[in-house]
Amino acid sequence: xxxxxxxxxxxxxxxxxxxxFSTQIMGDLGADVxxxxxxxxxxxxxxxxxxxxxxxxxxxxxxLNRNKRSIALDLKHPKGKEAALRLIEHSDVLTENFRPGVMxxxxxxxxxxxxxxxxxxxxxxxxxxxxGPYVKRPGQDLLAQAVSGTTFLQGTAEGPPxxxxxxxxxxxxxxxxxxxxxAGIYGRQQTGTGQRVDVNLLDSTLHLYIQELAxxxxxxxxxxxxxxxxxxxxxxxxxxxxxxxxxxxxxSMNPIGKLAELTGVPGYEGITETQNMERRDEIVEDxxxxxxxxxxxxxxxxxxxxxxxxxxxxxxxxxxxxxxxAENEMIVEWDHPEAGKVRTTGVxxxxxxxxxxxxxxxxxxxxxxxxxxxxVGEFSDDEIRELQRSGAVA
Length: 394
Hints:
Rossmann fold; alpha/beta; elongated
């Protein structure tokens, strides 16, 4: 293992999306991530987005769990819990995303572990927080989008609220888990002790919409979605997506008059403003009439040299073949012992001296149980055999 986080060890109890996404990022950067799973495995092992499986392994699990080692423990079994504690003892960070109270009932809550391992950084991620009126409600991405106002910002004026196509709450919470864990480690260097770090879907999503919510809170009024489908309720024309002769083009904030001149749209001569809220639906409709005259590439060839902010609108096939994506090495392939070839996104953060990478495939359930018990937990061979006989590990 290499990378800037080499030497950092994480006892990862998280499942599903936001927790595993966060620990995979840290694994990509060199951390030793111990994936502590129940005997039947992470829930995500038994479900996959799009119902896509590679030789029985769900693509969702495979793409959220590389660079980890798996150990399967029965945490309700005394010997299984003791094995978990011995792994935690030699870890810097613990991550979990159970509902509030579950880790306490297992005897692995923060207060108990902080007394026993005072240097441990204990990161909890939940749907709504550790206290409050929603604490017992199920916490899930769509529900967090709805409560945070995310869905209210999407769609057209006459249509219903629309959620994002990507699990934005899960993944922005994952980034906050990474930030919280590393900040906790830095804090430990200053104070000598660890602490509890709490992240939740609701707060993370609200943080994502910091500008939009601040506009409302500071007198901007409730955002009004446009009839023409301008992507943001707070932005005006010509900002948006336009259909071309063979696809679509994205037009960002540009001087309306200059864009009109280049696209042959009459009636906007001399207008220098880059955004118009009052007439945005009318302006969008006017520009929509012009863009079908040329292909996307023809428009790019015309507009980009003139300083117009624009780009192609890629589908996933286009993304796969995009030269900038290739330059950034963001489509990668790795081998799994059972699933075979796995293609996914690469490491998004680049380091000049300690680069991250894909060091391990997403583990088979319990693949590293014996290895981790001996190496990290410091169990003897006889102790490991006894754990296996007892059914506490798999």
